Every structure is written in structure tokens, then in C-alpha cells.
Task: inverse folding
């Protein structure tokens, strides 16, 4: 509720003649529309074509490499867009950017060029090739249960032996054990082939995953196991909180920049 209230304060700061661009699929959108009062409200959506939604996405496709494409529907026409980003959740992010830009005067061509030039932030669902000619998703920038769920969904869009390599999620307090177990259960239900982890809290995710899960005493043992199994059919998702420094595993399994 605190986050909802804080976002509402942003609406309060917009002038009476300003425009508020909101996600029609957000569960709190009704509160924000009410808070906008007499200000102009524009809705966007990653899926809904309701008549109240001015900008919406359709025909969302995920390619073999995990990259997403979709059709942007706007008041001035449609445009097929291809993102250099992994994950369906980025369709919503792209729709937010596209609708805001077009309300500010951008054309469909402007939006297409802008999104085509947008690449992933380092360590955030960043697609890489391993030194074994396989695929690796580097999502080591940080970790929370929700970001784990999104990353697992991306992993399941790849073909091959899909291995989730996880470090601890930090700063979860008394919810740490249950949060790690949720991640393990989600990965198992999603169909992840193997769940490998290192860290005191990550062992609870391993327990929740069940068969085909391994907990390693050290990151070095984990890395050696990754190297033993890696080939051109292996897909790794590597993720953990900032403090776990799981990018060291990524660095050992991938080519350095420029190679």
C-alpha cells in the first residue's frame, strides 16, 4: 500500500493540464484514475484491447532465442516491433515507453527505431553464449521472488537442457525461508530441468524443487559442475542477489567482452 500511495503522489504533482499514462492491467489503476481527478488519463496495456485502452499490444511472440516481438496498436495505426530484450514482461515496459512517447509527439517510426536500439542492462536478463557454445541468461544484477519468477518464465522459452543456477536472495528477513521455497516450487512446476544452488538460504529452494536439485557447499564446486555438464544444448539461467556476486560464475562460463 505504501508503494501505491507513493505512486499516487507522482500523480498529484502533475499539473491540471497534464496527461497521466497508466497501465490498464495494474490492479491499482482504478485508485490512480480516481486520484488523477480532472487530469487527462491515457491507458495502455500489454494485452487488453478494451475500448478504454488507447494503446495495446497484440500478437506477442517469443522466438527461439527468447527475444520478443509484438504488434503495437495505436490511434494512428499499427506497427510490428521487435525487442532486443528477453521476457514477455518487457512488452508491458515497451508499451509504457511507446504510449508515453507518442503522447509527447513521437511517431510510430520513432517508437520502432527507439525500441530497436534498446538493449538489456548488464546483468538483467542478458542473453550470452557460453564458451561451450551453449546459451546463458545473465540475471545476476539482483534477485527477489518476483524477478526469479519472471526469469524462470524466460528460461522456459528456450529449448535444450535448462538449468537454473541460483544464489541466495538477501534482505528478506523472516520471509527468507518461505520466499526461497516459493522459488524452488515455481521452478519445479514450470518444468526447469535442473536446479543448482549455493548459499545458506538457497538450500531451501533446492529442498522445495525436489528431484534433480543440487546444493553446493562452495561457488567453486558449483562452477566445476557447470563446466562438466555444459555443451551446445545447455541453457543456464544464473541469478542471485547483488551480494552473492553470481556474476563470477557467468564470467567463468562466457567469453569476456570483445572476444
Result:
Amino acid at each position: 500500500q505504501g508503494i501505491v500511495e507513493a505512486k499516487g503522489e507522482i500523480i498529484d504533482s502533475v499539473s491540471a493540464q497534464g496527461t497521466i499514462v497508466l497501465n490498464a492491467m495494474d490492479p491499482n489503476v482504478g485508485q490512480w484514475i480516481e486520484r488523477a481527478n480532472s487530469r487527462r488519463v491515457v491507458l495502455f496495456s500489454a494485452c487488453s484491447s478494451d475500448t478504454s485502452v488507447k494503446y495495446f499490444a497484440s500478437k506477442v511472440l517469443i522466438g527461439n532465442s527468447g527475444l520478443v516481438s509484438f504488434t503495437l496498436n495505436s490511434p494512428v495505426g499499427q506497427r510490428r516491433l521487435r525487442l532486443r530484450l528477453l521476457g514477455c514482461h518487457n512488452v508491458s515496459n515497451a508499451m509504457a515507453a511507446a504510449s508515453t512517447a507518442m503522447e509527447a509527439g513521437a511517431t510510430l517510426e520513432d517508437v520502432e527505431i527507439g525500441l530497436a536500439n534498446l538493449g538489456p542492462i548488464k546483468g538483467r536478463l542478458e542473453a550470452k553464449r557460453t564458451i561451450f557454445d551453449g546459451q546463458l541468461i545473465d540475471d545476476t544484477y539482483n534477485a527477489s521472488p518476483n524477478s526469479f519468477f519472471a526469469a524462470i518464465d524466460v528460461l522456459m522459452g528456450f529449448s535444450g537442457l535448462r538449468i537454473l543456477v541460483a544464489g541466495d536472495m538477501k534482505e528478506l528477513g523472516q520471509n527468507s525461508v518461505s520466499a526461497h521455497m516459493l522459488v524452488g516450487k515455481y521452478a519445479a512446476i514450470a518444468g526447469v530441468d535442473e536446479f543448482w544452488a549455493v548459499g545458506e538460504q538457497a538450500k531451501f529452494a533446492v529442498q522445495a524443487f525436489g528431484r534433480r536439485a543440487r546444493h553446493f557447499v562452495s561457488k567453486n564446486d558449483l562452477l566445476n559442475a557447470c563446466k562438466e555438464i555444459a555443451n551446445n544444448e545447455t541453457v543456464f539461467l544464473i541469478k542471485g542477489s547483488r551480494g552473492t556476486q553470481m556474476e563470477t560464475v557467468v564470467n567463468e562460463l562466457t567469453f569476456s567482452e570483445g572476444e
Notes: The domain at 126-253 is CATH 3.90.190.20 (Protein-Tyrosine Phosphatase; Chain A). The two ends are 47 Å apart (CA to CA).
